[in-house]
Amino acid sequence: MIAFKIIEAIANCFYVFLLMIFVRCLLTWIPGVNWNNPILNALRSAVDLYLDLFRKIIPPLGMFDLSPIVASFVLIFLRNGIIYAAIYIMAALGMLGN
Question: What is the pTM of this model?
Fold first, then answer.
């Protein structure tokens, strides 16, 4: 039972970060957003740290930045890989039960 909770917690962490990327992208469309707000500044700092890895590789197409889309796909791919690996390891250790 605890193994399922661990796997669920891992999946939820990835889900929350994907939501943070989505909110960050939506906020860039709103003019006049106060990025000096401590919550928005923390959101921007956390998400941009990850997105900047992709912005170095993928240049913007005109006024469109496609790096959040690619970053989200990579994050989903990593999430699935980590979850499947955790399930495999926990099943091999006998933690999942029958």
Answer: 0.86
